[in-house]
Amino acid sequence: MDTVIGAGVTFVFDDNLPHSFNGIYEDLSGNIILRKKYFPWVSNKNKQKTLWTYGGQLRSTYKTINTRNISLIFESNPSVVVHSEWPVNNKDREYTKYIYPDGDIVVSIDERPDYEKLLRIKENSNK
Questions:
Q1: Computed from CA positions of residues 5, 28, 116, 79, in that sequence, does the dihedral angle turn out positive or negative?
Q2: Which of 38, 85, 113, 127, by CA, is between 20 and 30 Å from 68?
Q3: Whole-number mean pLDDT of the chain?
């Protein structure tokens, strides 16, 4: 593995923008219990491998109002690994090929794996 990158979670407690910001934030108030599910994503981009901790977004930002307590519950799902390869050339564009743990191969213009699909794979593996 050439690089390992974790997911970012940022909380904003005032009206200032955070240093690292994805452009959107979710408003939360009161006592917060934040549950996030993460999946390993092995990206092979131009022959450089990167391991991502992927939770639907690469970064999540929350603006908190009247918050006294924040509880974070992070669930890692190491048995549900998605692999990607970029670039996969098509006639007019470059695409990414995603290889999901259920055997599905999806070639897409999307820059990230399908998080909902990973959740379904995880749910089906628990049955």
A1: positive
A2: 38
A3: 89
Q: How buried is 95 (Cβ within 10 angstroms: 0-12 exposed, 13-18 middle, 19+ buried)?
A: middle
Give me the residue spans of the domains in the chain. Answer: 3-125
Please, what sign has the CA dihedral across residues 102, 103, 107, 113? positive
Q: In the structure encoding, which two tokens stand for residue 6, read together?
A: 């974790």
The closest alpha carbon to 56, from 36, 35, 42, belongs to 36
Residue 17 is classified by DSSP as P
Please list, in sequence order, all residues whose beta carbon lies within 8 angstroms of the beta carbon of residue 4, skipping any fewer than 6 positions away: 50, 51
- pLDDT 10s digits, 7-59: 788 899 998 888 877 788 899 999 999 999 999 999 998 889 999 999 988 78
Give pLDDT tens digits for 55-111.
988 788 999 988 999 999 999 999 999 999 998 876 777 899 999 999 999 999 898
